[in-house]
Design a protein that fits this description.
Elements (H helix, E strand, L loop, with lengths): L2 E2 L8 H7 L15 E2 L1 H5 L6 E4 L5 E7 L4 E7 L5 E5 L5 E9 L2 E8 L8 E10 L6 E4 L8 E8 L7 E8 L7 E6 L5 E6 L6 E4 L5 E7 L5 E5 L11 E5 H4 L3 E6 L5 E6 L7 E6 L5 E6 L7 E5 L2 E6 L7 E3 L5 H12 L4 E7 L5 E8 L2 E9 L4 E7 L12 E7 L5 E7 L9 E5 L16 H8 L3 E6 L8 H5 L8 H15 L3 E11 L1 H12 L6 E5 L18 H9 L4 H5 L13 E6 L7 H13 L4 E6 L9 H19 L3 E2 L10
Parallel strand pairs: 1-29, 2-38, 32-33, 32-34, 34-35, 35-36, 36-37
Antiparallel strand pairs: 3-4, 4-5, 5-6, 7-8, 8-9, 9-10, 11-12, 12-13, 13-14, 15-16, 16-17, 17-18, 19-20, 20-21, 21-22, 23-24, 24-25, 26-27, 27-28, 28-29, 30-31, 31-33
Length: about 650
Amino acid sequence: MFSIKPTGMVLALLTVAFAAGFLCPSAHAAGPAATVDVGAFVDRDRFDDIKLSPTGEYFAATAQFEDMTALVVIRRSDRKLMSKFGRKDAYVGGFWWASPDRIVFDVAMKIWYDDTPSSTGELFAMNVDGSESKLLIGARVNDGMEAGAALVDPLAGDDDNVIVAVLNTNGNPLYRVDRLDIRNGRNREITRAPVRRASFLTDHAGEVRVAWGQDEDSARRVFLRKAGDASDAEWSLINDDGVSGHREWPLGFSADNRLLYLQVEHAQGPDSVVALDMDSRERRELVRDAARDPLSVLYEGRVPIGVSYDGVGSQHVFFDPSAAPARLYRSLAAAFAGEDVRITSRTRDGRLALVQAWSDRNPGEFFVFDTVQRKAELLAARRDWLKPEQLGERRPVALTARDGLPLEGYVTLPAGNSAKGLPMVVLPHGGPFGVRDAWGFDQEAQLLARAGYAVLQLNFRGSSGRGRAFEKAGMRQWGAAMQDDLTDATRWAIGQGIADPQRVCIYGGSYGGYAALMGVVREPELYRCAVGYVGVYNLRWHGSTNSADTGPANRWRREWVGEGPMLAAASPNNLAAQVKVPVLLVAGGADDTASVKHTRLMEKELLKAKVPTESLYFKNEGHGFFVDAHRREFYIRLLTFLNAHIGGGLPDQPGARAAGR
């Protein structure tokens, strides 16, 4: 066991950043549940990420704002601000310590149709003191020959180079892999991808050994390459899901590079992790849970040591339970009981580790852990204005669908409230495929719980996390079995006494917006209101309407969403006359994923059917709101709307201003 220093010993990391003019401390009053401080939940985290330098001499941290991301470097010994990067409309995505004194980072920009910044493919580097700041690669370098690059390996044993994947501007979707000098930006080709849209994995000697991607026939393929082989012809195929019927994802190499760890799908049941011998190609299964896919991978540096599963607290399973990293993780899990923990970075000598801990009521805290002295010192908290005792518990729930399929999800409950007879919001996730709700801090669920609502989030069929068969059970089930799962879960919560049957609403974004409207179409007596946020309401518009279009995205839509008459029969805009409860519709005029025309048409049809309908539009927002004022206004409108129909707390601000259309 080890000791954790109290909060009075918190390092002044972000205080220095405040003084640098980047960050502004937030002040939020807790307030009673009758009035909800929307800003406490909507305001951005104090920082996104923190990483410890290879020698432990510095921290690097990022914090995102509406118009930029700040990257700062702090000296650990005296908390001195060493350097900062921040430019209007420039957002730092990933950042890596490429050497003890130099950081490489990629820059993103806000695309008008999306709610998150998108990478420009430009990689920058700067020294810890801010000197020798340089754009290394991207469209503005080398006469624009490189459209963009992504970091593959920061090369821990090489302080001058990194490995990057590079896409040329000639329109060829095949990447090449280069060794890139982080001082002068010179790059040298290593190999080229054997598959389109490729990702790459290096071994611990910096050799490019694995490539995986998706070709025009939609098949996902994984290839291996011999160490030290400069010939593109030496790539060998180890999995083609069009032939094998299952997908595989490379996770990393064992410390001696003999084994490649893969996450492998199965026809039935959850994914497993296998070890592939790079010489013999023999496979050995290491981990497979009875019901759950691995949620994330645990690493010691870049070596996979185990996996984490979704569930309350730390749900870790190790490939070698007796190894030192496994013992360290078990000690951390015991010290941070009830929370999940990750070692996010370590010094090269292994003495210092940066540990992140979080839970359903903790958005995330970072600690510096000394493995010799066995002491952990609190460094910073993402949202230190939120107090755990004022946040809701997130309880796992399990039930059985009407056709016998086991279902799981979470109910978040108001703090200090018994789970009996509460107003409830059903909150289906977006996607819907390959997405899931997991245990941990959920901003929307906590905002609604603070207003006094129970919040039900179900991983309906089609969600990830339960194996390929469970995901495929959602194919072509828009408005059908996927919707039945949400109905069954709602009735289950009522039957358990959690929800007041007269005070239930359904709200969601993207696919969740679709499910909210289909919910009140199919179950007009179950819900008292519905909220659709950037939703899809006309399935004929969801992708190409050209049956001859053989592109991968549209083949996928026809296979997973459907085609022909079934689309009209499962489109809420065609069924507006069946809606009997009030509806709030919210959308961005620049949405390129679920065009605003979906919401405009849905509103038109609801009004034609004389359904009480409210709407909120922002013409310059995309698939999810990005501007702080718009996000705040939306949640004010949401709480006000829910309060009018099922009770619950009101926002602590006056009603939102009229939105420009």
